[in-house]
Request: fold
Amino acid sequence: MLAARIVKNQGIYIEGLNFFTGFCVEGHTNAIRNHRPARRNNALWVAEQLDIRLNIIDVIEEYKDVVINPKHGYGANLNPCLDCKSFMVGKARQWMEAKGFDFIVTGEVLGQRPMSQRKDTFPIVQQESGANDLLLRPLSAKLLPRTLPEKNEWVDREQLHDFSGRGRKPQIQLAKTLNIKDYAQPAGGCCFLTDPNYTAKLRDMWTTRGEKRYDLDDVMLLKVGRHLRPTKNYKMIIARDSGETNYLQGYRHRHEHLIMTSHGGPITLLDGDVSDDDVFFAARIAARFGQGREAAKVTFIAAKPDGTERQITVVPLRPSEIMDSWYL
Amino acid sequence: MSSHHLDARNLMCPMPVIRAQNCVANLEVGDELEILCTDPGALTDIPTWCRIEGHEVLELVQNGNELVIKLRVAPRRVFS
Reply:
């Protein structure tokens, strides 16, 4: 937001680009759950504040290669930050060339991120994206070699900044100067690939499949519900409230599932190849997460993706029988 | 003027906005687009996108878990 405002204030026409990878926390994931209000989409909010066009671009398919085969490896979790940055700046370069724009602006700050925003990795992003000296980083520009927009005086370098490091005080001060009173919470957290709980589930999925492969439904389902793997061949996704139940119902055509009928309770999806014994055992586990957890028996409809249904009645597992190791 | 429908059910934001944005790009000024969604985030995102682009939101209806957002396509806005 700051970088865009600085450049716009110099009289330069800008448009925003927002790439949707499937792993963006921005995507209102929390809104699925009942008690959490829908959060604003920050990219849209910023575009409205700046009065600029925002182009939201679905890069889910192309992004898979970044996640699966990162040339520069992962960070603390499954975050391929440097490859991701090069990919996104590369997409911005393609957009710039296709739409007749002159250069690219990012809000990167030198030293702010351990992988992608270092003095030695900034040039890697420029090279690998093909943006080279058409990539302007207004917040740290004075600490970096002059870019073409500066050399050609399309922008006034003197009005750019020399921010560096992980602290946000200079940015907050600049926001005050620019009369920006509200802004997205700083310090990251915008990508599920940096989340250890999420990436544990992603690793489990890849391990089970025997290969690094995913589609959008996979990455969405990893964000929703409790995930338990009682045996190697299947896992359970148990909704945590009615909001998640509503959401998971959209996946009934894709997964065998359990719907509690004798008591109130969440929907459970079964992901994997399940035998009748597996379905029966999964129902005993699922019974613990509904209102019949203390009942002698709980009844479910067990349904296949093709709509075939059968009724099963089970005895809920005791709490001590639910293994901690099943939770992903 | 013609009416169009977009099924964005079971997509989480920003996918409904992306689908709406891509769909509107192929419509004529004055056309109406009815978007069916299930993500409650669309209730704020699509109207925000419409405000930015100048499209008119004609209807916002919640039917149980489904949302219907109807908009009228405006001329492509010129930003300064």
Summary: DSSP finds two helices and four strands in chain B. The interface with chain A takes residues 9-10, 12-15, 17-18, 21, 38-41, 43-45, 48-49, 51-53, 65, 77, 79-80 of chain B (CB under 8 Å). The helical segments of chain B are 15-24, 42-53. Chain B has one domain: 3-72.
